[in-house]
């Protein structure tokens, strides 16, 4: 068998593997960005609650 016949499919497979891995990496990055946005909104909400509850203070009568 010729070396070219062995090298060509191998190179094509490596390129395909790298492309698929890049696509999955992009998908993971997109999900992580979405999670970061959600966590930012939650943090904003928690800080707002903290500001509103801060007026009550610790040790308030029940």
Report on this structure:
With 62 residues, the chain is mainly α. 82% of the residues lie in helices and 0% in strands. It has a domain of 39 residues. It is built from 1 helix and no strands. The N and C termini lie far apart (86 Å).
Helix and strand arrangement:
Blueprint: H1 3-53
Please state the structural category. mainly alpha
The unreliable regions are: none
- For the record, give the distance between the C-alpha atoms at the N and C termini, rounded to a whole number: 86 Å
Biggest sheet overview: none
Helix content: over 70%
Global outline: rod-shaped
Strand content: under 5%
Q: Would you list the SSEs in sequence order as H and E?
A: H
Can you give the mean pLDDT? 91
Count of helix runs: 1
């Amino acid at each position: 068998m010729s070396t070219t016949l062995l090298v060509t499919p191998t190179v094509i497979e490596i390129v395909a593997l790298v492309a698929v891995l890049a696509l999955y990496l992009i998908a993971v990055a997109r999900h992580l960005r979405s999670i970061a946005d959600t966590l930012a909104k939650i943090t904003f909400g928690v800080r707002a609650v903290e500001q509103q509850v801060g007026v009550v203070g610790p040790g308030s009568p029940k």
